[in-house]
Amino acid sequence: MSSFVKPDGEPTVTATLAAEDEVYEVSPRYGSVHLKGLSMEAQGVLSKFDRNGDGEVDESELEGVVDVLVKEQFKGRMFLCGIQMIVLALVVLLASIFGLAWAVVSINKSTALRNRVLVRKNSDDPVQIANSDFTMAPSGAITARGNSRAVLGTSTLYVNRQLNANMTTSDLTGLVRVKVSGTNGANVGFRVTGFSLRSSNPPQLHISTPAGILVLLGDRLTSYNAAQDLVDTDELAGQSVTGIFAG
Question: What keywords sit in the KW lines (predicted)?
Fold first, then answer.
């Protein structure tokens, strides 16, 4: 075994000679990484930084490793930012396509729905459609195709709704009749000539009929002199009132 002291003051390098196999083993220098003791994968990575090919990566060569590591981290952050920008651009693009499609459909739309009636977009004229089952007679009447005597007629649609004093004036528009059911099963109907809403607590609804006035307190009948000559008025106390509306 021989020991040597380098003139530049570096640690002693010890060389051991085995006479049998004539192999020299040299311990790594201080502050360096000996590649031989690392895994094959680590050796493959660090060998690129062993500039002098001595099988060790010293301090100056480790600086290159750190520089590469910092650059790779920076590239990773830039790649992540790029992905985020691409996703944002894709979302904006999809939103733009949707908005453009909606605008095109809206511009080209020629009809609109007003008060539950399909009309032309720039007017209040109802949309007219053709029907193969009916035709217009010279007199202006709509008749069945092939049978001029079968004239198409119209009738008023009536809707029944329970009345209450919390309804608004617009809700009561179209009220033409009211019907009250007695406790013994008798039904009394009245033609409506007018109505008024009274602000009170609870609110009141006064319904005018040719026979008199009906008064609802909430949704119950409290005054019913209009029915005094028709049925036993005790049968109507506290009963609900059904309104018949013309559609």
Answer: Membrane, Transmembrane, Transmembrane helix
